[in-house]
Structures are given as structure tokens and as C-alpha cells.
Amino acid sequence: MSGPGTGSLLEVEGLSIDFPTRTRTVHAVRDISFSVGREKVGIVGESGSGKTMTGRAVLGLIRPPGIVTARRMDFDGIDLTKLSEREYRRIRGNRIAMVMQDPKFSLNPVMTIGRQIDEAYRVAAGAAAGAARRRTMEMLKAVRIRDPERVYKAYPHEVSGGMGQRIMIAMMLVAEPDLLIADEPTSALDVTVQMQVLAIVDDLVSQRGMGLMFISHDLNLVASFCDRVVIMYAGQIVETCRASELHKATHPYTRGLLASLPRVDQPVERLSTLVREESWKTEPGVDARNL
Amino acid sequence: MTASSANAPGLRAWLTSETPSSPLQARCIQVYLGWLGLARNPLAMLGLAIVVCLILAAIFAPLLAPYDPIAQDLQRRLLPPGTPGNLLGTDELGRDILSRLLYGARITLYVVALVVVTAPVFGLLIGTVAGYAGGWVDTVLMRFTDIFLAFPRLVLALAFVAALGPGIGNAVLAIALTSWPPYARIARAETLTIRNSDFISAIRLQGASPLRIVTGHVVPLCLSSVIVRVTLDMAGIILTAAGLGFLGLGAQPPLPEWGAMISTGRLYILDQWWVATMPGLAIFTVSLGFNLLGDGLRDALDPRSSR
Amino acid sequence: MPATSDVSGADMALLISHLDVRFGRGEEAVHAVRDVSLTVRRGESFGLVGESGSGKSTVLRAIAGLATDWTGRIAVDGEDLGRKRSKAFYETVQMVFQDPYGSLHPRHTVDRTLSEPAKIHGIGNVGGRVEALLHDVGLGPEFRFRYPHQLSGGQRQRVAIARALMLEPRILLLDEPTSALDVSVQAEILNLLQRLKHEHGLTYILVSHDLAVIAHMCDRLAVMNAGRVVEEMDVDQLRRSQPQHNYTRQLLNASLGYDRDKADSLLTFD
């Protein structure tokens, strides 16, 4: 096991998230370790696998009664486990940004879209109003919004879901964060827009050295877009590999998921279905810090 | 199928079964789970206890009351609380206040029950029909509702009672007539969010008539918010009834209505404070009980918070 | 637009010609479907593919009678449909919705959801049919008296499919039936739909944004964009990557995964 790699932006060791309920405790995430460098790391799993919780925990967004424990959670030399809520707020949106599944809940409904993006940029870069406006327009154009002037002045309820998602992405990227946590950021978008938005994120990673945690259920997309893949099942990491080698994955869960996908070019009579083994839940997880 | 559930040990197992075997059991399990949610809230349980006490007091008033509530004894008038034989004292005609309060619970409950079986049912009907039908039906029904909503409740009740003559029945009618519009609005708002959902589209595609859709599919979903609102409104209804009694337009003497009791007690408020205070405390306690229960029900019944 | 006229009336399950659907009136009106013509043969699986806002779901809702403001011609089994649908129509055409969390009444048990159509249409032996259909969609009798919140997404979708089959329809409209499900559950539901099609002799009209799902399930498909059908083809053409229209080619390309260079070459079609 190599120590904290010099290229590593986020280093997580032994992260667990528990939700105590009236009758028992739900272990949403169980003792996982992973790292994100200046690269695109895909976190893949089905609903309930704990992938979304993992992303939220890094940002300190797990609310009581949820309990987060970690042996280590370092972001660029900062110990995230020791941060107060105030210190966390300085990092959130500025150095670590998050794009959520549903944009409608993440935008302020009584502020124009332009003002919200301006503000995000001014807080992050300390820029003047004029510069912020120029940067906002650039960003709106970059996420392929056709009429940025109109959208700048619009309120969140006046735009469609897909456009709201692109606006969220623009707002998160305008601050040029070091780490972007994207939770199913493009699942509400049409495939063509999805490709274009991913290209923007891709460029930020390759040109500015941003780190990306890409949380998704879409195996094909993660395999073609990310550098590294982490596969989660029932709160644990069951496998990790280079994205380009996902088709060579060995864990029966990963293999099962891949096999259950219909394909345009390979017709089958019946899709193979996943038979879940009880042992997947009990076997020790995989350390996804080094590869 | 029924045998397997009968073999399971005890009622608790039957109520917590993951695999109910009849519609009745499925429903009982839902009620039981709702009850568990409510039971976790101590304030709601306090409210429930107060309401249960009110009901018990009303049912068993003849057994619990030490005296006849309207029997006068002028030699024992205006005795302070704690007097042997008159725990809460006596009023200006020597009537035992405790006995009058216990019998007064019957009148309060009577008012509450009559309002509950009329206003919310009517409001629910108007609201769901307006919301589901839409178009001109909606417009007509909701403007009709607005007209009633624009009347100040107590003033309309006063006018009503003044026209039809004082009495508890007329007071209830007046309260019911002025309290249904909020239920209609709630029901309509809920219906508007429900009517475009897929499960309503699905039942329309099964060829269900609008009547069946409204009664079988829309109303059950509006019911919980209306029940919560009714429970919270109960305090206001009791207060309105007491207010009418206080003004001499509700229950007529010598009926032991709490509001009327305060009204006569105010003549003695400086020297014999208990005559007005005891029924006042009763009204306060019961109103609080309904409010606490209503808050608890809102938390337990709201399908959004139960996930 | 080539309205496929080579199909004889006898084995035609569904015919749509020059269908236009609008929402709203005046300047606010949205012209969701423009001049769509399709034919679906009996026993066929027909796919409608397109991105959000392409009008594919609206076509389905117009067939089902849920979108009423349409012009043109819709005929099922050779009989023209009006705005109002008869009881017989509901016994012929049924629909499965996209969101399994929204398509079941939250306060009704599985039993009530399934038996209601039978009660509306006065079909006897309701209990027996409910149990048989639950078995058919792969759910045990223990599910019969559960509420939707006690079921997983896949189980809910199975219940929704059972409900659609309760009246023994011949045509099933499937509106993105698996897009809200995990891939492993999607495979189970697609397999189930394939099996039910053979067992019940059904005709499917499947709407999806996922070309792979359409390719797996369907014999023929139509690609929609901005309310119009831009291309109609059979699935072999799709598999051989031989779409004629640029939009279809782009959709096919994008569905194969991310490629940095490809992203720049994407066009917007309106």
C-alpha cells in the first residue's frame, strides 16, 4: 500500500455511514477507502449501494441522525474530519463543488439565474461585477445554452429540467473548483447534450487538473468517460479497475451488471439477469486508493 | 392462507406481519404502524389523553358528578374550591362546578361531533369535485366557496342565531356553515396535485368513471390532511361555541355549557374568581388537547414525512 | 412521410395517420406532435425512440386517450377512435407507465390495484385472476396484500404490468417502462415483457430514449425529433448501424458512449 500519493487530491480511509432507526441501524456505507487524484473517478452502483451517500459525506452533507466515521479523510492537506460547519462552508462550492441529481432543489427560486452564477464566481474569485457577468455568460454558452442573455435574467422555475441541470453545472464550474462531485449530473439530459456537458468537464480535468468524482449508475458511460472505476455494492467497494478495462472485470457482481445490459450491436434472445450472492455483502471490501 | 396467520403467536405478530393475507389485516397493519408513529410523540399522546378524558367525562358524567348540575342550593352559593363536597367550589346559585363541568363536556362533545360530521364532509366533496373536474365546474364551486370564506365566522353565527333564535342546534349549524370552506380549499389543492399523477391516468385507462376516481382514489389521499386540519380547528370550534354561549346565543340556561358558565361567572370575577376560571380552564385544556393531537397526527399521517 | 401502406387491414393492430397533438391554446400552445403517421402490425413490437420533448410519449398518450387535443386519425384493429373511448377500447389497449413510484396508488394494496379493473368491467372470479396474474409476473401470493411502499421499484413495475394485463388487452403501450430502474432490474423486466408477449400474444408499442432497449425489444422503430418522425426502419438496419438520417446516426453514436472528439461534432436538430 502506497502512502498518500503526491498526485492525490482526496484521500479517504475507512469511511462508514450509519443511520440508526427505531429498530436497527442501517449501514449505508461500510468501511470504504478510495482516493481521487487529478483524474476522473467513476463511482458506480445500483440504487441503495451507498454511492450518493459517499459523495455527500465528502462534502459534510450527511445530516443527523446519520453518523459519519472515517479513519482519514484528507482533501489537499486539509483534514475534513476535523472541520467545523463554518470551515466546511468555506470549502463547499469553492474548492469542492457538487452537482446534484435534481437541479430544482439546488437553485434559489427567488433569485435570477444570472445573479446566482455571478455570486458564485465573485465569492470564489473575488471578481468585480462586470467581470463576473462576462464570465457567467461565457459559462452559460459553454454548457450549450442557446440564449444566454434570456437565461441570465430568468428565474429557475422558468427553465426546463434539462436546462436547469446545465445551469447548475455552469454554476459549479464557474468557481473552478479543485474537486467536482457530480451525482448523476447528466441522467436528466438528452444523450447529445450529455456528451457536450461531459466534454466541458473533461476539459477542466485535462487542462486545469481538476479532480472529478463521477457518481453514476450508467456503466457504459462511466467506462467510456472516466479514467478509473469504483464499483459499490451494499455499501462496500467490491471492485476497482481502469475504466478502459471494465469489460475485463472479475467480480461476479460487476460481470453480472455488464451482462444484463442490452446492446445495439449484439442481439440476444434473453438478457442475462443478476443472481445476487449473500457472500458479496459479507466478504471484505476492496481498497480503491491505489491502482 | 388464513391458517398461517392464525398460527403466528399473538396479535402483535399479526399486526407486524410482512405478508398480510387479507385486506383487513393489511389495513390493520397500516393503522398499527400509524399508531406507533403517533405513540412516539409524547405531546400528541398528552393531547390524545385529554381528548379521551373529555369523551369519558361526557359518557360517565352521571356516575362521576357528585351533584345534579342544575340543582340549586342557595345556602351553599359561591363556595371556594376545596370546600368538602364541592371540590371546585360552587357558583352563584349554589350549583357544584365540577358537576357542571362534567355535564358540560357532553355539550362540548355534541357540538364538536356535529360539526365534524358536516363541515369536513361537505368541504371534501366540494373541493375534490372542483379540483378533479376543473374548468367551469371548478370556477363556480370555488367562487361559491370564496363567498362563504369571506364571512367572518362569529358574525355570521351571530346573525344566524339572531334570525333562527338562540339554541345549541342553531349555533352548531352556524359554525358548520362557516367552517367548511377551508376544507374545500385544502381538498382542491391536494386534488390538483393528485389528478395528473400516473396512478390516476392508469385508473382512467381502466375505464373508471369520474365518480369512482374521486371517491375511491382522490378522496383517500385528501383525507389525512383534512383530518389533521379538522383536529387543529377543533379548538377554534369549541371556542366559537363557547363564545356564542358567552354572548347568550348558544346553549341556554340552565344548561351547563362552558362558555355560558364563564359569562355568568364574570359578574363575580373579582371576589369569586373560580366561577369563571374553572370553565375557562376546561375550555383551555380541551382546546390544547385537540391542538397537540392535531400536530401529532400531522406528523404521523403525512405521507411525505413518513419516508 | 411514407405512411407504410403495404400492410393489409386484417393484420394491422394500430394505424396512425397525420396525427397532430397540441397542448394549450393561442400563443402559449405547444405543438408536441406534428404530422406523425405509423402502422403497427399485430403481434409486432414497435419502438418509438427520441429525446425528451421529441413527442414520443405524447403519441402514446394520444393513443391511450389521455391527451385529448389531437387531430388526425388513430385506428385500433381497423376501428377509428374518437375523443371519448369506449369500455371495449380499454379492454383492447392498456398502458404501463414510466415511474413505478408514481403509477400505483399509495394507499391501495396490490390486491385492490389489480382487482379494480375487473370490478369496473364486471369480470368474475377476481381473486383467482389476481393470484394468477401475480404468478404470471413473477410475484408470489405473499405480495397480494402489500402496499406499494413495501415493494421495490422492480416489484412495483411488475404490479403495474399485471394491472395492465388484468383486462386481457391485445395491445400494450409501454412508456419508458424500465428507465427508472437499475440495469439488473431492467433486464428482469424486459425479459418478463418478452415472455408475456409470447404467452398472451400481445402487440407492444414501446417508447424509450434508450436505443439499446429498443433494439433488444423491437422489430421495427421510428425515430422522433421535435414532434416529427424523422426516420422509420427495422431493427436490423439499426444493428448494422445503417440509419439514413443524420439525427439517428448521431443518437446511435452518442448511445455508444462518451468520446471527446465526437462531442464537438454533435449538431442540434430542430
From TrEMBL, chain A:
<dbReference type="InterPro" id="IPR003439">
    <property type="entry name" value="ABC_transporter-like_ATP-bd"/>
</dbReference>
<keyword id="KW-0547">Nucleotide-binding</keyword>
<keyword id="KW-0472">Membrane</keyword>
<protein>
    <submittedName>
        <fullName>Peptide/nickel transport system ATP-binding protein</fullName>
    </submittedName>
</protein>
<dbReference type="GO" id="GO:0005886">
    <property type="term" value="C:plasma membrane"/>
</dbReference>
<dbReference type="InterPro" id="IPR050388">
    <property type="entry name" value="ABC_Ni/Peptide_Import"/>
</dbReference>
<keyword id="KW-0067">ATP-binding</keyword>
<dbReference type="Pfam" id="PF00005">
    <property type="entry name" value="ABC_tran"/>
</dbReference>
<dbReference type="InterPro" id="IPR027417">
    <property type="entry name" value="P-loop_NTPase"/>
</dbReference>
<dbReference type="GO" id="GO:0005524">
    <property type="term" value="F:ATP binding"/>
</dbReference>
<feature type="domain" description="ABC transporter">
    <location>
        <begin position="10"/>
        <end position="259"/>
    </location>
</feature>
<dbReference type="InterPro" id="IPR003593">
    <property type="entry name" value="AAA+_ATPase"/>
</dbReference>
<dbReference type="GO" id="GO:0055085">
    <property type="term" value="P:transmembrane transport"/>
</dbReference>
<comment type="similarity">
    <text>Belongs to the ABC transporter superfamily.</text>
</comment>
<keyword id="KW-0813">Transport</keyword>
TrEMBL record, chain B:
<dbReference type="InterPro" id="IPR000515">
    <property type="entry name" value="MetI-like"/>
</dbReference>
<keyword id="KW-0653">Protein transport</keyword>
<dbReference type="GO" id="GO:0055085">
    <property type="term" value="P:transmembrane transport"/>
</dbReference>
<keyword id="KW-1003">Cell membrane</keyword>
<keyword id="KW-0813">Transport</keyword>
<keyword id="KW-1133">Transmembrane helix</keyword>
<dbReference type="InterPro" id="IPR025966">
    <property type="entry name" value="OppC_N"/>
</dbReference>
<dbReference type="Pfam" id="PF12911">
    <property type="entry name" value="OppC_N"/>
</dbReference>
<comment type="similarity">
    <text>Belongs to the binding-protein-dependent transport system permease family.</text>
</comment>
<feature type="domain" description="ABC transmembrane type-1">
    <location>
        <begin position="105"/>
        <end position="294"/>
    </location>
</feature>
<dbReference type="GO" id="GO:0015833">
    <property type="term" value="P:peptide transport"/>
</dbReference>
<feature type="transmembrane region" description="Helical">
    <location>
        <begin position="273"/>
        <end position="294"/>
    </location>
</feature>
<protein>
    <submittedName>
        <fullName>Peptide/nickel transport system permease protein</fullName>
    </submittedName>
</protein>
<feature type="transmembrane region" description="Helical">
    <location>
        <begin position="154"/>
        <end position="178"/>
    </location>
</feature>
<dbReference type="InterPro" id="IPR050366">
    <property type="entry name" value="BP-dependent_transpt_permease"/>
</dbReference>
UniProtKB/TrEMBL annotation, chain C:
<comment type="subunit">
    <text>The complex is composed of two ATP-binding proteins (GsiA), two transmembrane proteins (GsiC and GsiD) and a solute-binding protein (GsiB).</text>
</comment>
<dbReference type="InterPro" id="IPR003439">
    <property type="entry name" value="ABC_transporter-like_ATP-bd"/>
</dbReference>
<dbReference type="GO" id="GO:0005524">
    <property type="term" value="F:ATP binding"/>
</dbReference>
<dbReference type="Pfam" id="PF00005">
    <property type="entry name" value="ABC_tran"/>
</dbReference>
<keyword id="KW-0813">Transport</keyword>
<dbReference type="InterPro" id="IPR017871">
    <property type="entry name" value="ABC_transporter-like_CS"/>
</dbReference>
<keyword id="KW-0547">Nucleotide-binding</keyword>
<keyword id="KW-1003">Cell membrane</keyword>
<dbReference type="InterPro" id="IPR003593">
    <property type="entry name" value="AAA+_ATPase"/>
</dbReference>
<keyword id="KW-0997">Cell inner membrane</keyword>
<dbReference type="GO" id="GO:0005886">
    <property type="term" value="C:plasma membrane"/>
</dbReference>
<dbReference type="GO" id="GO:0016887">
    <property type="term" value="F:ATP hydrolysis activity"/>
</dbReference>
<comment type="function">
    <text>Part of the ABC transporter complex GsiABCD involved in glutathione import. Responsible for energy coupling to the transport system.</text>
</comment>
<keyword id="KW-1278">Translocase</keyword>
<keyword id="KW-0067">ATP-binding</keyword>
